[in-house]
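note to self: dont lose this again. the chain is below, predicted strucutre after it. 581 aa total, dont forget to put it in the shared folder this time
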Amino acid sequence: YRGLTEMPSTEPPEPKTFTVGMREAFKVLNTDSNTISAPNFELMYISDHAYFWFDSTPGISEPTESELAATGAAFDQIYEQDTAAFGSEDTPGIDGDPRIHIVNASPLTVCDVTESTSHLCGLGGYFGSSDILPSSVDPSSNEREMFVMNGSFFGSNTYLDILAHEFRHMIESNYDANDWDWEVEGSAMLAEDLLGFPSDPIARGNMFLANPDQQLNRWVDGNTLPYYGQGYVINRYIYNRLGPDLYRAFATNPEHGFQAIDMIAAENGLDFDGMTIFLDWLAALAIHSDENAPEIYQLRDGLDTAANTGINKFPTAVDTTVSQYAADYYRLFGDGPVTLNFTGSNHTQLIKVLPVSGEHMWLANRANYSSMRLTHEFDLSGVDSATLEYNVFHEIEQGYDFAYLTISTDGGQTWQPLVGEQMQGEGPNDDPADAALTDRFYTGRSGDWVKETVDLSAYAGQMVQIRFEYVTDPILTFGGLALDNLAIPEIGFYDDAESDTGWVAEGFVRATGYVPQRWNVMLITYENGAPVVTQLELAEDNTATAEFSLSNAGGGRPMLIIAASSPMTLEPAHYQFELTQ
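---
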């Protein structure tokens, strides 16, 4: 797409020599307008691990020598602690220099504010993953490991807290740039906690615990604070459970999420796997503050327990839903024996739409910082005109993730964009940062299947390759890109995704409209004052029955935890239960 004929060199250059007083222009993102400017910055301090640059734009005060020395020493300590806990950034990195550049920008540069309203700038700082790419690949790259910081916070604890968080992101990019959002942001919140800045992680963790029916393996484009909190709480639990050394192995493992824990457990002869950790964590959310709870259910001081729904009348019937990789909590009051009858759905819709025809569709589902491709070669040499027809559904982060349709006439060496009437690219929010690789693309939510027709007549008489490609940034994915009923009638090609018709799928799968629904039902009772967690056995039809006592003789009130965990889908799971005496 960028016109490159070969891969850019990954060999770092000879590092440049920097001295205090030098000036350079840095490309900096205004997070309000999604535009990039390149103001000049002055290098004012060099510590063991960082260069400190300051914006010449009004809006920040010039730091004193003592402030520079203190902050430089504090970041060097953050560097040592973060690398000990999470691994190393790519060093010497793209610029061949082991030091990191900390670019302190004016609020007027990174936000749409004035000198009088600079305190309203909501940005604290960011690590831009584009800066570690060659500028030939991403023109916005500064080609160095760096942070952009809101310079008005310089010298404060908030400033250091943000650096601890953002440096964790830089380290993450060296190992696995497309981890789940709960790993990426949750481990960065854990970095704040471990490095002595626990107040924000705990506050956000308690936001999550106030409403724990929140899908772990998703992110949102609205209020993200509870999702940061959820990611922090599970990373804190994993850190406690594995210990520092094995948590570092988890943080540097190329596998994602619970699969990484599976690998670590197998390599170290541990008697649990990733799913065990997830279920134990769900139980810990309910009982971690109980001083008699077993050690595996401990978290940390300051965190609340998960909010629950109280039930004190019997019989009681509940008919509701729960998010995937989340749980509903019920505390049971009363006396005497009670019988639970649970029924969970057997299947859940994979995305918001079903296949247009038949049982299958092509789907590029959910993966951060990825490129998923579906490619097919077609012989148009015998026709004078041709048309590509297909149904498309897209649920894509608007303006930041994009799906493209392209064509090649040279065996895949170069690709040209194709344009459909249903594509985006003309609206102001379709590509605010000018990040898309073509002028027209799919982004945002289509809401339902839409019919697309693309004229291929300009390529008639040739052998061509046609490609759908879905490209995502480092965080936030939705349902993805789905295709069905692809056809080029002029050459007799028709694909309803029910069989293999010659597509080369890289990240796309032929998917059905539903996925099997997985359930876990846990019962917490008390014996000799201590909580006991019991996994109920479910039949093949996702039903379970249990009898237990509500009496408080053991020291606490029973609790029922109902958890759903079907991979990839963002659709909630339906269940029912009845409690009778």
